[in-house]
Automatic annotation (TrEMBL):
Signal peptide: none annotated. PROSITE patterns: PNPLA (PS51635). A motif (GXSXG) lies at residues 44-48. InterPro entries: Acyl_Trfase/lysoPLipase (IPR016035), PNPLA_dom (IPR002641). Keywords: Hydrolase, Lipid degradation, Lipid metabolism. One of its GO terms (molecular function) is calcium-independent phospholipase A2 activity. The active site is at residues 46, 197. One of its GO terms (biological process) is arachidonate metabolic process. Residues 7-210 form the PNPLA domain. GO terms for cellular component: membrane. It comes from Dictyostelium purpureum (Slime mold). This is PNPLA domain-containing protein.
Amino acid sequence: MGYRVLSLDGGGGIRSIVQCVLLDEIEKQLYATPISDLFDYMIGSSTGGIVALSLATTNKTPLQMVDLFDKIAKKVYKTNTLYKLNCRANKYRNQEMIKLLSQTVSTNPEDVNSYKKVKVAVTSVLDESFQLGNEQKETLDYNEHIKPCIFPFYFRIPSIDSISEVRNASILDAGLATCATPSFFPSFKLGNNKYRDGALLNKNPCNIALSETKQLWNENNMDIFLSLGTGTTFKDSNILNNLNNNNNTTHKQNNGSISASQSFISSESEETYGGMIRENQWMNDISFRLNPELSKHISLDSSDESSRNLLKNESRSFILNNQIFNNLCSKLLSSLFYLDNVEIDKSSNQVRGIIKCRLKNVPSPIVNQLNIKSFITEQCDIELLDINLTPFSIPFKITSPPINNEIDIKCNLVCLNGRVNNTSISGSPFNLKKLNK
């Protein structure tokens, strides 16, 4: 059975509403199947990390996360009076952020062991200047005095070249650490260390997601990789490329702060994702990137209702007749089903196995679609022998299979949009020669 990965950009602040709306639309297309049932690994930076933690460790829905960001805009993004008097003061107080996150995720480090369903992590950066006793945190060149780290809520074996990890933290600790934006909020202190916003060094954590999941599931194949942005205002890819060429200059001018323009953040995230795909061509057919184009610039700390409504409305408009979104949903539906107990019966020259479902309770709209043509192959004929719902299992047999070819079992079930689905289920295609070994 393959694994499914969700990576959420940071650096967008209130624009993480975009991510929540897209995830809500995905749930709708999959007949209200929770995001935590559609992915096995989630990682996020900054507010993208807040989304990942909440969806992976609570029963919160993406729509409820939209409500959380509405509250953050209203209650958190109120300029600190001292900021108006002293430019070195933080622009916002973090008491309301702590309060809102405390009402959303667990504050107890011991609760971490109870989150077995989805493996989740957030990025952060360790402020080494604090360890050195340097208190001039707002004037530091962050490129020299911070290093990336992650808060992983799963067992991992660190390697020499892997990113450093933070242990013994609560979900709340991780949430506060990943969104401690310089100049906006104070750094987050945990033990003897201080942490800053994960988007400082990993606006798009897709490469970390790829590295981590390879270690976690080194003997399994990846089914899906989904990367979600927080919206962009650029159409011309040449502009994005030009911005990428000015990477170091932009960082230097902003002292490493992610209060840089939305355009730079978006372009850097796109380049990170593009680089990952170029270096891993095998991901081409299973990797998806959604980053809606917005009609106007929305600052990451925008507090007005009209901006939030624009984010919601344009994110929903973005997916209408969007082929990438439709293909993603079809693939997510197909990946709910996987192969088990596949073997070759040489005496009868048959391949036999069972198609199973990851879900304990299969949504009725999916059940109602099931028939003898729900799963097909193009290389040969497959016969579905029975359909059992409790637990879900569909025994099948393939007579006279092509010995030298792969067999690819595809799903004919459709999402809410009714579009034709012809994507492979998890564990497919499989090679008959490997089964013989």
